[in-house]
Structures are given as structure tokens and as C-alpha cells.
Amino acid sequence: MSRTLFSADFCAPRGLGNRHVQTLLPRFLPLPSLARETEIINLPDGDFVELAWALPAPTRADAPVFVLFHGLEGSFDSPYARELMRAASEMGWRAVLMHFRGCGQAPNRLARAYHSGDTADAYWVIGQLALRYPRAIKVAAGVSLGGNMLVKLVAEQGGDGLDLAGAIAISAPLDLAASADALNRGFSRVYQRHLLHALKRKVTTKLAAGPLPITLSARQLEGLETFWAYDNAVTAPLHGFQSASDYYQRASAGRLLGDIELPTLLLHAADDPFMPADLFSRLPAPADAVRLEIARQGGHVGFVESRQGRLGSWLARRVAWQLECWAAHLAPHHSLAAGPNG
């Protein structure tokens, strides 16, 4: 792993280094202003996903494309999504976020939702972008759940299976079972409760609209208090898994790190409260195409830094640097260029 492992240059501001402070702080900072245009992309199975395109869009047909996949119950309005899309847009990239099914402005059509290993919709959208912008460099980024999904997709498709110059995964829960355990300990239960509340609210709405392939009453649904319980009773039967254990094993991307051929940047904080501290020691060594940067602090999708006396997103700055690097020097499917500190 030493050939692919680097120390991230993130430095938390004095007094703001606690992992929970870093995780929560982006929600208390001003949300970047960014106009969008919504597009509905119909999927082969009759469902749809909603795309959010950053405005103003570049006028050049060959402008590079940045496609973002959000985290669990995230959206265009998530602080990291606004920061990353604005950064890409200001660099002249065509920035677009794919909302997972049911995460946009309207509920999805089918009796199902989305999950951490659900690569088919992203594969379809990237394919549509390839047809629409055949001459444009394209880079995909995924955050949290979206990061695990993207790593799994990239590993499955090999070096030539996607029209991408590179991929970036941020705070990706690459071992889903270990993350479910971590989120059921200490203060991290606060995040678990918040996320499960949002998920259960959506399932309640879908149950009221029509039958689902789950055998739960509203009271039983409300009683699911851990990710293990929820994924066993809801996620698994909705998406063809036998159990939560089966889902976690098959959907976790960490086991595939050694198979990645596409240039891929992984950004991770050692103190991420959604994951065990020894996450990467549990996983296979990444392939040479992978650059893994681990910061000592940063929390889960936090990485709030101070520059010139103002708090801001280190993630947006680091991702912008990578986009600039790949756009300037990287033809699709070549080796990953060295990072800013190695």
C-alpha cells in the first residue's frame, strides 16, 4: 500500500479539529449560491433519475464534464455538493449531479429505492454523457455512499469500460458492515438516527402510495433503530439481497480496491466517525492506479479549513486541483499523476 498511500495536506483550524465538529461544521457555514437546471433522465427499467446541472453552463461542446454522486439522503443542496459543483463550474467545467432514485424533487416511480452498491444508474448516466459530449474529458466524483458506489463501478468496469479520465471518492464507506457497526457506537448514533429518520420517512410515503416487497407495518418500520436492522428489513428485500450481511458483503467496494485500473483518488480522514480507524488495514492493497490520501483529521465529509482568516472547504480546493491536473496532463486511462504533496 505504501506506493499508493499518501498523507493528505488538510490541516484543521485551531479548536475545530474534533471529528464531530468537522463532520457537522459544513452545515453551519453559508451554503454557496449556485443556480441549476433540472433534467429528468429516464432509465431502462421505467424509473428515472434527476440531474442537476450547474449554471451558467459552458458554451463549448468539448468543455470538460464533472459528474457528482451524492451521499446517503444527500442532494444538490448538500453543502459538499454545492462546494464541489461550484468549484468545478468556476473552472469552466460542465458540472452535473445525479440524484439517486427518490433523492431529487420528486419521488421515483418504482417500488424500490437506491443503495450503496447500486451502480447501474450511474453507468447509464455516464453512458448518456459520453454520447452527448463525446469529445469532452469526464471525471466522476462520489461522496460517502456515492463514493463507495463509484469505486465499485470503476472496479467492475476496468480501465476502458467507462468514458472517464479519472474518479474521486470522498469519505467512502468501503466496508459497509464496519460502517454500520461504527455508526451504532457513541455519538455516532446521532448520525445513524438522523439518517434512518430520513430513510424511514421516504419508505412510509412509498408504502402509502402502493405495496412494497417488504413485510413491515408502520410501527415495525419505526422500531428499526440501527442500520443493521433497517438494511435487513428494508434495503435487502427491496433490492434483491438475502439479508443485511449479504447486502454489505456484495455492495462494499473495499474488496475491489486491487482491481481498479482507472486513475482514482481516494480522500479519507483517519478520524471519520462513520468508519473504523483501521479501515484500510482491513482491505486489500489498492491497485497502482489508486492514490489514497488520508488526513489525520477531517471527520466525515468535513475537511473545513481556514484560509486567509475564513473557513472554507479543503475538499473543494483539493478536488479542483485534481481536475486541473487531469484536464491539463491526463489522457484517459493513463497512470494517476502525483498529488500536491507527493
From TrEMBL:
* Statement: the UniProt record of this protein carries the keyword Hydrolase: yes
The GO molecular function terms of this record are: monoacylglycerol lipase activity; short-chain carboxylesterase activity
List the active site.
S144 (charge relay system), D272 (charge relay system), H300 (charge relay system)
Q: Which residues form the AB hydrolase-1 domain?
A: 64-305
Q: Which Pfam families match?
A: Abhydrolase_1
Q: Which UniProt keywords apply?
A: Hydrolase, Serine esterase
Family membership: Belongs to the AB hydrolase superfamily. AB hydrolase 4 family.
UniProt protein name: Hydrolase
Q: Which organism is it from?
A: Chromohalobacter moromii
